[in-house]
């Protein structure tokens, strides 16, 4: 179609399809330009020149990590890029391999293990571009003109899209014009309504202004009339007052003279001049006597309070003396009790063996007595100083007479001292540990004393008999 020669297509230009790999390979072959200023040139080493300079990054990896322009455009505009239109009726899309290098696709991936040892600080070169090994057999195919692309048939979808887009844009513009005309009509109606409202407001304000002026004028007239009536009322009142004043002038003159003291009662004058001053003097004297009596009562009360405080202080001192005497008596009783307990303990220690023999079978188990005796022996051995090591015999000097004689035997080590625990110490330990009740010891002591007294009486009787 001759009218569509200058129309841009979806690819941007009218040409035969071209593989993406070719464009990518051509972009990789572009020369990398470096800045001319050596202050920003990466080839100029800064700092320690002995350190290894990192190799420049691979341009292929940099380009691969950089997002494509289509993705940037889609992210900025929020629109999905156009895709390949669906195939027409009776045809289907077939995926073709458009890469420069062909490789064989196999299910089993060859694997191999290898080991290597690198140097201590190797200088890593830039990563080379991956070029797969060439496998398989190359074949050629001849495609004639018109076998894959028929312009008259393939251009129909493009024309439909262009016409639809133009119609949609036209409808959008018409709708926008209609909306703008509607907005202008609405705005004009709004201005008309607003002008009518402003006129109505102005009329209302003028009417209100006239009403206010009329009200102020009426108020002013009312105030003026009230002032005139007030003046008239004062004139009438003044005339009435003058007439009444002149009628009672005689009476008022006599009243004024009486109030001034020209007309007085002799009894009232005597009361004011004589009686009231005398009454005042008597009241003052009575008040002075009452104050003197009050001071005397306060002095008596202070003296009685001082005597009461002295009596209570003496009673308190006597109570403290009684409490101190009671405390001294309690201390003396406690000392007497301690002395009695000490005497009782001395009596127990003097008869420790018989008492222990008398109490042990009933109250204390023999195993407990043996256990306490062994513990006391262990504590006594632990308190002893460690034994001195034996002194070795002196060696005789060579050439002396004692050299030929046999050496004397070394002195034997001293035997450890023998530890004996008395019955008194054992009985005291049992009392301190509360293993033997004091009441049981007292009963055993009474029994022992009774037995001794009976033995003494029997011996005395036998002596008398002899």
From TrEMBL:
Keywords: Cell projection, Cilium, Cytoplasm, Cytoskeleton, Flagellum, Phosphoprotein. Pfam families: Radial_spoke_3. Residues 1-22, 47-90, 114-133, 382-424 are annotated as: Disordered. It is found in: Cytoplasm, Cytoskeleton, Flagellum axoneme. InterPro entries: Radial_spoke_3 (IPR009290). Its main location: cytoplasm. GO terms for cellular component: cilium. Residues 384-393 have a biased composition (Pro residues). Residues 1-19 have a biased composition (Polar residues). Belongs to the flagellar radial spoke RSP3 family. This is Radial spoke protein 3. It comes from Apatococcus lobatus. The lineage of its organism: Eukaryota, Viridiplantae, Chlorophyta, core chlorophytes, Trebouxiophyceae.
């Amino acid at each position: 179609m001759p009218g569509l020669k200058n129309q841009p297509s979806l690819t941007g230009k009218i040409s035969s399809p071209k593989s993406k790999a070719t464009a990518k390979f051509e972009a990789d072959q572009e020369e990398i330009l470096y800045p001319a200023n050596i202050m920003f040139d990466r080839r100029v080493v800064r700092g320690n020149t002995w350190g290894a300079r990192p190799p420049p990054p691979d341009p292929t990896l940099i380009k691969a990590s950089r997002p494509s322009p289509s993705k940037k455009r889609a992210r900025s505009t929020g629109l999905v890029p156009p895709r390949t239109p669906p195939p027409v009726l009776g045809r289907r899309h077939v995926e073709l391999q458009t890469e420069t290098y062909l490789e064989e696709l196999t299910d089993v991936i060859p694997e191999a293990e290898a080991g290597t040892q690198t140097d201590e600080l190797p200088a890593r070169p830039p990563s080379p571009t991956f070029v797969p090994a060439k496998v398989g057999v190359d074949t050629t195919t001849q495609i004639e003109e018109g076998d894959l692309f028929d312009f008259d048939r393939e251009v129909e979808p493009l024309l439909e899209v262009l016409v639809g887009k133009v119609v949609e844009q036209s409808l959008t513009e018409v709708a926008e014009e209609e909306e703008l005309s509607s907005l202008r009509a609405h705005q004009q109606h709004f201005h008309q309504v607003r002008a009518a409202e402003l006129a109505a407001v102005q009329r209302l304000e003028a009417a209100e202004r006239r009403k206010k002026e009329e009200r102020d004028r009426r108020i002013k007239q009312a105030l003026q009339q009230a002032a005139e009536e007030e003046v008239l009322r004062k004139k009438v009142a003044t005339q009435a007052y003058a007439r009444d004043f002149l009628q009672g002038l005689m009476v008022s003159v006599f009243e004024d003279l009486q109030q001034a003291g020209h007309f007085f009662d002799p009894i009232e004058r005597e009361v004011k001049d004589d009686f009231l001053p005398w009454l005042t003097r008597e009241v003052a004297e009575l008040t002075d006597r009452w104050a003197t009596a009050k001071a005397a009562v306060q002095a008596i009360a202070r003296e009685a309070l001082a005597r009461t405080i002295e009596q209570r202080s003496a009673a308190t001192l006597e109570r403290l003396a009684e409490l101190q005497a009671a405390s001294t008596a309690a201390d003396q009783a406690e000392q007497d009790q301690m002395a009695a307990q000490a005497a009782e303990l001395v009596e127990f220690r003097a008869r420790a063996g018989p008492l222990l023999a008398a109490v042990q079978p009933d109250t204390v188990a023999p195993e407990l007595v043996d256990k306490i005796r062994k513990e006391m022996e262990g504590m006594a051995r632990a308190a002893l100083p460690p034994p001195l090591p034996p002194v070795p015999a002196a060696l005789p000097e060579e050439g002396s007479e004692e050299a030929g004689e046999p050496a004397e035997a070394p002195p034997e080590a001293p035997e450890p001292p023998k530890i004996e625990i008395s019955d008194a110490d054992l009985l005291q330990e049992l009392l301190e540990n509360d293993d033997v009740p004091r009441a049981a010891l007292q009963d055993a002591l009474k029994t022992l004393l009774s037995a001794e007294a009976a033995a003494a009486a029997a011996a005395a009787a036998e002596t008398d008999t002899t």
